[in-house]
Design goal:
The protein contains 12 helices and 12 strands. By secondary structure, it is of the alpha/beta class.
Length: 387
């Protein structure tokens, strides 16, 4: 049994080494971090191969801002036509048609554009590691991205922005429907107009959010890389679990989307992204909840007695279930789920954690590695429960 204190010390050493500099996808800093990961994996009995890929930077540079701007415009015009010109059905049509078109555009950009667009091309490399003794393809893969980025708007502000816009735009649509069905009134008109302006205001942080290379990415995501490597160590050399260290997660999940395009068989992917010393564990999944995963996660958490964050947002001990993705947050599990895999993302933190992510303050000096030690044990327990 590996001592928790020793694991935490090793975890902190790994994070400190990986987060010695920023690691934008395809950069020299990321290449150096990948070499460190290769060494760490080979020392633990893995055979590691490079998986190079090309991708477009355009979706990550411009798509969020443009989609947010157009979405805000659609909501504003919807309310404008309903209240000022007294044609609510036209306003409702603008909202429905506009948001549907933007949803399809977002879907295509996310699923295909990041790999297929010919503009603003770049290249990077995934690391794919399997046990030297493995005789077949792993059915369970541990995933963590190595690339980092900075953004002009902190993560916590973007999450609040995305949530606020969702609430405001839904409210506008509901009021426009009420105007169309029951007729206009000063109260309904005032509510629709006010909420449309709130929708525009809440969209501004996303509209003005642009990426850079100023974050050392200790939390996001040197901690996730350390967690999956140490989880594999806990599972031991007889486990056929594979490890994928992806690049390009911060620029549209590019590395994960490339990996799944090459795989002819689906499997289970446990993604680890952002593990703080403080806070509670959370498991996030996109799409329909997979019962097998949900039950394995709950059994593993109960067995270890870890402190978790449930559906209600209240802290509990030994009960961990899948929940939907937090608005405004993307993670590699989405790419795997889109390709038909069973997948979720494990994170640990609190509101303060979101204030560090994608900023210059995301440095290794504030981490002790205790959260990583717990995450490694939890990941290993989940894998064992899935067997």
């Amino acid at each position: 049994m590996i001592d928790a204190a020793a694991t935490a010390t090793t975890a902190r050493e790994i994070v400190t080494t990986l987060a010695s500099s920023s690691r934008f996808a395809g950069s020299v800093g990321e290449e150096s971090a990948m070499k460190i990961c290769r060494t760490l994996l080979e020392q633990r009995g893995f055979v590691v191969r490079d998986q190079p890929f090309g991708f477009s930077m355009a979706p990550s540079r411009w798509a969020p801002s443009v989609i947010a701007l157009l979405s805000a415009a659609v909501i504003w015009f919807s309310a404008h036509f309903a209240v000022r010109y007294h044609i609510p059905w036209t306003g409702l049509g603008i909202a429905i048609a506009g948001l549907v078109i933007l949803s399809f555009a977002s879907y295509w950009i996310a699923r295909h554009g990041v790999l297929s667009l010919s503009i603003d091309r770049a290249s990077a490399v995934n690391l794919v590691a399997t046990r030297a003794s493995a005789t077949q393809r792993p059915s369970v893969w541990l995933v963590a991205h190595i690339d980092s980025k900075s953004q002009t708007i902190p993560m916590i502000v973007r999450v609040v922005s995305a949530t606020g816009f969702l609430i405001a735009s839904t409210s506008v649509a509901a009021v426009v429907v009420a105007i169309a069905v029951f007729g206009s009134s000063p109260l309904l008109g005032s509510i629709a107009t006010t909420m449309s302006y709130i929708a525009v205001v809440t969209a501004l942080p996303i509209i003005n959010c642009f990426i850079g290379n100023a974050s050392r990415g200790a939390l996001d995501n040197a901690t996730g890389v350390a967690s999956v490597i140490l989880a594999a160590e806990k599972l031991g050399p007889d486990s056929d679990t594979g490890i994928i260290i992806t690049s390009g997660e911060e620029v549209g999940l590019a590395g994960a989307r490339h990996f799944v395009t090459l795989e002819t068989e689906i499997g289970t992917a446990i993604n680890c992204d952002t593990i703080d010393d403080d806070g509670k564990f959370i498991c996030m999944a996109s799409g329909a909840k997979i019962r097998r995963l949900d039950e394995a996660i709950d059994r593993a958490a109960s067995r270890l007695g870890v402190e978790t964050l449930g559906f209600s947002g209240r802290a509990s001990r030994g009960s961990l279930r899948l929940r939907s993705m937090i608005p405004g947050i993307l993670a590699d599990n989405i790419a795997f789920t889109d390709a038909g895999w069973e997948s979720f993302t494990l994170s640990r933190g609190n509101i303060a954690t979101l204030g560090y992510v994608h900023t210059r303050r995301d440095v290794p000096e504030r981490l002790e590695g205790t959260g990583i030690a717990k995450a490694a044990s939890l990941i290993a327990a989940i894998v064992e429960e899935l067997r």
